[in-house]
Amino acid sequence: MKMRSIISILFLLQTITNGVNIVGAQSADFGVYKCRNSSNFTTAAYQKTLEIALDSLTGNVANHGGFYHSTAGNDTGTPVNALALCRGDIGPEACEECVKNSIPSLRRNCPNQKEAAAWYSNCMVRYSDREIIGVVGNWTFGELFNTARVSDIGEFNNALNNLTTRLQAQAAGGDSFRKLAVGNVTFGPDSLTIYGMMQCTPDLLREQCSECLYGTITELHDCCSGRVAARVFFPSCFARYSNEHFYNDPPVISLPPKLTSGKKNNTARTIYVVVPVVCTSVGLIGIGIWFFLTKTQRKDGMSKKETTSFSSLLAKQKQTSTNDTVGIETASVQSLQYDLKTIEVATNYFSQKNKIGRGGFGLVYKGVLANGQEVAVKRLSETSSQGVEEFVNEAILVAKLQHRNLVRLLGFCQESKEKILIYEYVPNKSLDYFLFDSVKHGHLDWATRWKIVGGITRGLLYLHEDSRLRIIHRDLKASNILLDQDMNAKIADFGLARTFEVDQTLGNTKKVAGTLGYMAPEYAMHGHFSVKSDVFSFGVIVLEIVSGRRNSSFYQQDDVEDLLLFAWKQWTGGRPLEILDQSLAESSYLENDVIRCINIGLLCVQEDADARPSMASILNMLNNNSVTLPEPKKPPYFLSNGLLLDISGDPDKSIPTLSSVSKSSMTEMHPR
């Protein structure tokens, strides 16, 4: 079993029936606490503010339908945001009691942390010095599970997948009052029934709730495959299932007073009188806002002409190719726009000291916004010939993507000649920064590498199957995998991404762009791309993670060979562990997990695109050891097809030639 950094609390095994372990009802209400130790407070003023924020939750949460949030603090101190969420099926008395009892326990377990959370069976309480309303909280999570297992794990997991997928959609589709779903599924010859519940804090948008619940489903697979009962808690959502009926159906919790119909007549009469006044006021306010925005926009250095030009560019991009961009309305995109002055101040006017990287797009700077939020600022190079199109593509494509294994786009700036993207700041740089460094790769033990592989898998699965449109990244490589403070993988750089309709499987381009060594042969040679071309790139990364070596590093003067063929030779020779990074030789790792990763990597880099597995299949292969993996076929040998790789040491540089086709049909390749 792979190492975990989270706390697991085990339920007691009580009965065994019909070959299936059954858990009895639990009388104790286990509490799970998480304290963010990276940020502590030392002043009595903050503690007093925290107490005010938490105290306001009791007496209010039950009266507001089981969800309540508050903010305490003033201009001179750090504000504290707090919220409480009760299970959506319980009554107000049980809700109030749970919240009231959990707050003192939370304060005892996290005595001086600026951010913490507590989960009980009936409620969740959390607080933070950061904004938490309308934000998906994934900085921590907890899990509880029963040690008992079912007899047929494969059948059980399939049934549970069907249940959690259904509940995820139902809960995310809830309203601003409650995002809750309950249900059950019966399966197997013994007609075993599994009951499930999923819930989000109702301040989340539909997409945010779905993303959060997707994380709980993933963790249920990781921690609890085949277990008869389990729970996973995130700060913004939770998932629970059991072989016992544990929820109230229908829910017994009360609606808040404003949603009851007791004053229907008075409410209607009030609306009738107030509407004309409100409409007039809204009209005047709207005119005022229009004048204010117009003045502010020109004051910030963005002329009307420039705004219109950018809007036209977005509209043109949307009209000309629905396969190249996600169709997000121009107004929605422009709502994410930052003014140049804000970005200049945040980056100390693009100071060299703030520079943290360089990509095909241009330079990347670290910045700090006025509210203290750290950001990564990607500044388009003025000399880039493809920059404008890639800029629009990336802004439109990434704006609506919400997943914890993707780097989140916060906004963009387009003023004068500047074109800038603003992303969340990911502190641990990129995977290649650690993986291919002779010293830093020591930070990547096997447990961390396994977690990174899983994170990339989940991110790609979201892009290929769970986002609004099917998205092909086209430039997946180690330098485009960023690592957060907990070494979680986040896929970055969508400048070359393309989108498919749901039923579309293959795309073609005359302009092949990407990084040789990671490119699938059908894409490099013929411009054909699909989800399976991303799978090929993923397979290369997996083999690099296992070996700690670049694909392009395998070069011999008389026998040019890449990592893929090297791994294949060791695999067919019965020596798969020969490719394992030597720095892992003395560390703790499971041999079966390493061999499984190598097998998956080789399956992904097969020459026949149809033979490569989907990302959903790969996730199942990683999480379910009972799945028998097929034998991979020999990977392609690029040099035999006339592709010459640049071995100068720059992984983003390529010098391609095509000797097997005439110059007139030659595919154009753009180095990144």
Quick take:
The protein has 672 residues and is of the alpha+beta class.
Structural Rg = 27 Å
CATH class of the largest domain: Mainly Alpha
Q: How far from one another are the termini?
A: 39 Å
Structure class: alpha+beta
Major β-sheet strand ordering: 1-9-12-13-11-10
CATH architecture group name of the largest domain: Orthogonal Bundle
Number of strands: 26
Number of helices: 16
Characterize the overall form: globular
Count of discrete structural domains: 4
- Write the CATH homologous superfamily of the largest domain: Transferase(Phosphotransferase) domain 1
The chain-level mean pLDDT equals 75
Q: Assign the CATH topology of the largest domain.
A: Transferase(Phosphotransferase), domain 1
Enumerate the spans where pLDDT stays under 50 for 5 or more consecutive residues. Answer: 1-28, 258-331, 639-672
Main β-sheet description? 6 strands, mixed
Can you tell me about this structure?
- With 672 residues, the protein is of the alpha+beta class.
- The protein folds into four domains: 235 residues, 2-Layer Sandwich (Killer Toxin P4, Chain A), CATH 3.30.430.20; 37 residues; 121 residues, 2-Layer Sandwich (Phosphorylase Kinase, domain 1), CATH 3.30.200; 240 residues, Transferase(Phosphotransferase), domain 1 (Orthogonal Bundle), CATH 1.10.510.10.
- 34% of the residues lie in helices and 19% in strands.
- It is built from 16 helices and 26 strands.
- A hairpin with a 4-residue loop joins strand 10 and strand 11.
- Helix 3 packs antiparallel against helix 4 and helix 13 packs antiparallel against helix 15.
- The longest helix has 36 residues.
